[in-house]
Specification:
Elements (H helix, E strand, L loop, with lengths): L27 H21 L9 E6 L9 H10 L4 E6 L5 H11 L2 E7 L12 H20 L4 E4 L10 H22 L2 E5 L9 H9 L6 E6 H4 L5 H8 L3 E6 L4 H7 L16 H10 L8 E5 L6 H16 L4
Helix pairs in contact: 1-6, 2-3, 4-5, 6-8, 8-10
């Protein structure tokens, strides 16, 4: 698997940069104990979550790499704002000066609601070498600081990767250790660390995901739920109900099991919104059930192939239809 950032998946020429799916057997003992411990806590999270009984509200966003038009950050932000988006996610550390981003925010009113740790696929927090883990930690801290500068409320983190050289139990131990080190900074800056479900052979079930978040016992560690990533092996509405008030942010994308079966694993992503296997009415109802759609609404960020101005407008309209979808 390439160590390139998974964010390359959402560039205009959409590619694949997430780790390949693997067997859960390497961490079966840890996963089993985590699931047992998570059962009561998951129920508690669902109980804490207050259902939204009013109008459904979600704030729409995209990944900045999806916007193909625009010569600079401000022009891209204006395109996205005009297309009906409320915000955007960006990478950090980044070569883009923070001053350019803050000027674009001021000029357009578009929010950078979240930052994505751009080095978590390169410098794993569970790497056997301590110096590499430290580099991953430094990237995490920089991402937190840049997020604070841009007024973001969270950063997205892939906490670990499990493979033959990096075992499951150490992935849990060392990633938890590094994130706990960053918690005082996250609290000081008022930026949440949101762990995402990706194809990294780690945190493979919603019960285990809940247990992992609960390990920190902190409001500054939450979950960034990618709906498309889970469609290969699970059902998004089940994850949402179990995660409950642990949800911080959403990634919106599609996955087709038929294309996966007929053409290969990665071809599953080669479908547009509402053309895959996501049961959007059930997903939206689940988000209502856990209160994610209440108040000013949680963030829903599209992460898939982008393009020009017309494509941005098309995606915005598609997301409107998804948000409005109803069961029955």
């Amino acid at each position: 698997m390439s160590e390139l950032s998974r964010r390359s998946f959402v560039n205009v020429a959409a590619g694949a940069a997430i780790a390949a799916v693997g067997s859960a057997s390497a961490g079966s003992a840890l996963a089993g104990s985590a699931v047992i411990g998570a059962s009561a806590n998951a129920s508690a999270a669902s109980a804490r979550a207050k259902p939204n009984t009013g109008a459904r509200k979600l704030r729409k966003a995209v990944m900045i790499g999806m916007c193909g038009d625009g010569a600079n950050v401000t022009e891209k932000f204006k395109i996205l704002k005009d297309a009906g988006f409320d915000g955007v996610e960006m990478d950090s550390p980044t070569s883009i000066p923070m001053s350019d981003i803050t000027k674009a925010i001021e000029a357009t009113g578009l929010k950078v609601h979240g930052m994505v740790d751009s080095v978590h696929w390169k410098y794993h927090l569970n790497n056997p070498e301590e110096k590499v883990r430290q580099m991953g930690f430094d990237g995490l801290v920089q991402c937190l600081r840049d997020a604070h500068t841009c007024g973001s409320t969270s950063i997205l983190l892939v906490p670990a990767v499990v493979n033959e050289q990096m075992p499951y139990d150490k992935a849990w131990e060392w990633s938890v250790e590094q994130i706990k080190k960053a918690l005082p900074i996250a609290e000081e800056l008022k930026v949440q660390i949101a762990v995402e479900n990706v194809w990294n052979n780690f945190l493979l079930s919603p019960m285990e995901a809940a247990r992992y978040v609960d390990e920190f016992n902190s409001p500054w560690v939450k979950w960034h739920f990618d709906i498309g990533n889970v469609a290969n092996y699970g059902w998004a509405d089940q994850w949402i109900h179990i995660l409950g008030d642990r949800l911080a942010k959403l990634h919106i994308k599609e996955f087709s099991r038929k294309k996966r079966n007929d053409e290969g694993l990665w071809k599953g992503f080669a479908v547009d919104l509402m053309e895959g296997d996501n049961n959007w009415p059930a997903i939206m109802k689940a988000l209502d059930d856990v209160g994610y759609t209440g108040g000013e609404g949680g963030w829903a960020t599209i992460e898939m192939g982008g393009g020009d101005v017309k494509r941005m407008q098309q995606l915005s309209e598609m997301l409107d239809k998804i948000i409005a979808s109803q069961v029955g």
